[in-house]
């Protein structure tokens, strides 16, 4: 821990910063020290924080280091993957096309993307551009994410074609359920309507006019940027989130095909420019009057379209429970202690981000961290909100830490219970070779299960390097532990037909706290012909 602290102190001195004139409210006087204190409490390697108020950048600064054990400091231009905060950028790209008169929010998707299909033909005919963005399609939570996560060899067009095989969880427009896959469709829609790929359109129509010089929408550009963070997480063998901080592989997350749903990389300085444009309702900063999108569409993107169910938070963080919550076009709109906020979180394995706009105060805050320590990210974010909204100061980092510790303890208890009394002494029905074969799921595609010296291996064929060992658990259920330890382990259950042959395979995540993108439970594999 002392090595990390020394790196953090050195990096804090070296970090680049932007400051505003005294006319604007800066963060608290001791804020830099507070950030470092919070980072030390969880051994967080690096952070970046941007604050915009009344159109001016009052804070844009990096803290800590880009990689654990390295002296390379995070500064105002260090880029972080920003996860689903980028959904608002895809929504803005569509808003620009609406302003250009090239499509409408209520146009049918199939009229612009003829190959687009949902599972239900009626939904295919009725799905609008607006529907792509508001999580009310009838798909289940995270439906189709394993097409892209943790990585994929597919194209964006392949993802669109796979969509027709994903069965809905509810009826169309009846319920909110967060997804990523329809934002991939939205990215393809930008390409079809504009004639430019999503990456080029975003760079030329949003990043360049806002002076977001280090922002990237392509993985290759991110990996070519030296001043970037490495992802980190705690990968205890029992439960993700426990144990020591460690560096993760960089090629995790939605990948390039999923970029419209959450594949941007931004620095604190980039985020500040994005916040300025949002708070100016689509006008570029600088007072020159240049608009990226209209004020009408700025307000449209902040208008809630579907109610988001509210689950009260427990006592340590109960005060953050909103009184109302709705999903708009790439944004969540709710209140914080009675004040309306427009916000969105982002998570790419090993990196987190959170963006909050307070329109009535003309305030925007963006926080990024190159680890999965949500308690530090959200805790510092709420401490900043309290400062700017004139609420009594509170140690939100400690409150979130208490909540997170309870969450992890409950998850660990559930795992230990499943591994003890619930496990039945049993033998598999077949020899190892009897389970081997080629299988496929309608929307995911092929997997291979092979037998090598009595040991079973599983390989997700269109997810590079997603292969692992199957160990017998009970009856005909095995546990998949992946060679890449950053991928969530899974239960793999075989069902046999009357002849004693494998008829189908189902899966589910081992951890009760697994990220919803590991939607193993949506898979149904059946045998395919032998190659």
Structural notes for this entry:
The model is unreliable at 1-23 (pLDDT under 50). This protein has 531 residues and is α+β, with helices and mostly antiparallel strands. Helices cover 29% and strands 23% of the residues. The protein is globular. The strands form four sheets. A nine-stranded antiparallel beta sheet has the order 1-3-2-13-12-11-10-9-8, with helices on both faces. Strands 20-19-18-17-16-15-14-21 form an eight-stranded antiparallel beta sheet.
The average pLDDT score comes to: 92
Q: What percent of residues adopt helix (DSSP H or I)?
A: 25-40%
Q: Strand share of the residues? A: 15-25%
Q: How far is it from the N-terminal to the C-terminal residue, by CA? A: 52 Å
> Ranges with pLDDT <50 over ≥5 residues?
1-23
* SS summary, helix count: 16
Count all strands and give the number. 21
Structural class: alpha+beta
For the biggest β-sheet, the strand order reads: 1-3-2-13-12-11-10-9-8
Largest sheet: 9 strands, antiparallel
Report the principal-axis shape: globular
Instruction: Give the radius of gyration.
Output: 23 Å
Explain the layout of strands and helices.
Layout: H1 2-14, E1 17-19, H2 31-42, E2 46-53, E3 56-64, E4 80-81, H3 87-99, H4 109-112, H5 121-126, H6 129-133, H7 156-162, H8 181-194, H9 198-207, H10 219-224, E5 232-235, E6 240-247, H11 259-262, E7 265-266, H12 268-279, H13 295-301, E8 306-307, E9 325-327, E10 332-336, E11 339-348, E12 351-358, E13 363-369, H14 374-388, H15 396-419, H16 432-435, E14 437-441, E15 445-452, E16 455-460, E17 467-474, E18 477-482, E19 490-496, E20 502-509, E21 526-527
Antiparallel strand pairs: 1-3, 2-3, 2-13, 4-7, 5-6, 8-9, 9-10, 10-11, 11-12, 12-13, 14-15, 14-21, 15-16, 16-17, 17-18, 18-19, 19-20
Helix pairs in contact: 3-8, 3-9, 7-8, 14-15
């Amino acid at each position: 821990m002392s090595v990390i602290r020394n790196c953090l102190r050195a990096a804090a001195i070296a970090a680049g910063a932007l400051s505003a004139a005294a006319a604007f409210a800066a963060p608290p006087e001791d804020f830099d020290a507070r950030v470092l204190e919070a980072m030390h409490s969880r051994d967080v390697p690096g952070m970046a924080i941007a604050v915009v108020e009344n159109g001016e950048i009052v804070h844009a600064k990096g803290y800590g280091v880009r990689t654990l054990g390295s002296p390379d400091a995070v500064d105002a231009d260090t880029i972080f993957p920003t996860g689903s905060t980028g959904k608002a950028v895809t929504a803005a790209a569509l808003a620009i096309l609406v302003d250009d008169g090239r499509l409408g929010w209520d146009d049918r998707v199939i009229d612009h993307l003829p190959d687009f299909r949902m599972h239900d033909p009626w939904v295919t005919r009725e799905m609008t551009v607006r529907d792509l963005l508001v999580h009310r399609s009838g798909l289940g939570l995270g439906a189709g994410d394993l097409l892209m996560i943790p990585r994929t060899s597919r194209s964006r067009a392949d993802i669109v074609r796979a969509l027709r095989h994903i069965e809905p969880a509810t009826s169309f427009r009846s319920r909110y359920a967060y997804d990523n896959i329809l934002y991939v469709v939205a990215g393809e829609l930008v390409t079809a309507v504009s004639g430019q790929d999503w990456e080029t359109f975003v760079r030329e129509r949003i990043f360049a006019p806002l002076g977001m010089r280090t922002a990237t929408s392509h993985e290759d550009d991110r990996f070519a940027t030296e001043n970037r963070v490495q992802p980190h997480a705690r990968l205890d063998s029992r439960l993700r989130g426990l144990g020591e901080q460690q560096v993760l592989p960089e090629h995790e997350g939605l990948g390039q095909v999923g970029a419209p749903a959450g594949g941007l990389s931004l620095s604190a300085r980039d985020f500040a420019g994005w916040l300025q444009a949002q708070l100016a309702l689509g006008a570029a900063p600088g007072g020159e009057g240049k608009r990226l999108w209209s004020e009408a569409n700025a307000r449209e993107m902040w208008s809630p379209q579907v109610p988001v169910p509210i689950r009260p938070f427990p006592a340590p963080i109960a005060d953050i429970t909103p009184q109302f919550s709705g999903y708009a076009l790439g944004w969540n709109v709710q209140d914080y202690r009675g004040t309306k906020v427009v916000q969105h979180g982002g998570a790419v394995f090993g990196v987190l981000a959170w963006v909050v706009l307070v329109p009535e105060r003309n305030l925007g805050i963006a926080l990024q961290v190159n680890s999965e320590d949500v308690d530090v990210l959200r805790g510092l974010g709420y401490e900043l909100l309290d400062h700017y909204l004139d609420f009594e100061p509170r140690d939100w980092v400690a409150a979130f830490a208490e909540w997170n510790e309870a969450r992890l303890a409950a998850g660990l208890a559930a795992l230990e219970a499943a591994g003890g009394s619930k496990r039945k002494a049993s033998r598999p029905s077949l020899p190892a070779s009897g389970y081997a074969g080629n299988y496929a799921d309608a929307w995911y595609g092929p997997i291979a299960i092979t037998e090598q010296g009595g040991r079973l291996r599983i390989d997700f064929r269109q997810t590079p390097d997603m292969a692992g060992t199957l160990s017998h658990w009970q009856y005909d259920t095995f546990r998949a532990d992946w060679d890449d330890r950053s991928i969530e382990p899974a239960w793999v259950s075989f069902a046999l037909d009357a002849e004693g042959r494998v008829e189908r395979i189902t899966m589910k995540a081992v951890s009760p706290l697994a990220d919803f993108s590991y939607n193993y439970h949506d898979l149904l594999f059946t045998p395919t012909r032998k190659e």
